[in-house]
Design a protein that fits this description.
By secondary structure, the chain is mostly helical. Helix content is 68%, strand content 0%. It has 3 helices and no strands. The protein has helices at residues 3-15, 17-38, 58-71. The N and C termini lie far apart (112 Å). The relative contact order is 0.05.
């Protein structure tokens, strides 16, 4: 078989509508399978609760003590 005849046969096969439809169907199936394998549900978000105020810093405590000492 000569190279030119080989490429003619390959070109004819690749241009056939059944080969094209099969290729498109396989790409669709592979894409769907990839989506299913990588799909992860997002965790449910908990309702936001009002956060308690942050505890006073050490500097603020010292200032409060010094103010109390000044009052006495």
């Amino acid at each position: 078989m000569k190279i030119k005849a080989f490429f003619d046969i390959v070109g004819t096969v690749l241009k056939d509508w059944r080969v094209i439809v099969t290729l498109v169907a396989m790409l669709f199936v592979m894409g769907a399978a990839n989506f299913i394998l990588k799909y992860k549900k997002k965790p449910k978000k908990a309702k936001k609760q009002k956060a308690a105020p942050p505890p006073p810093k050490a500097e603020e405590k010292k200032e409060e003590k010094s103010e109390e000492e000044a009052k006495e």
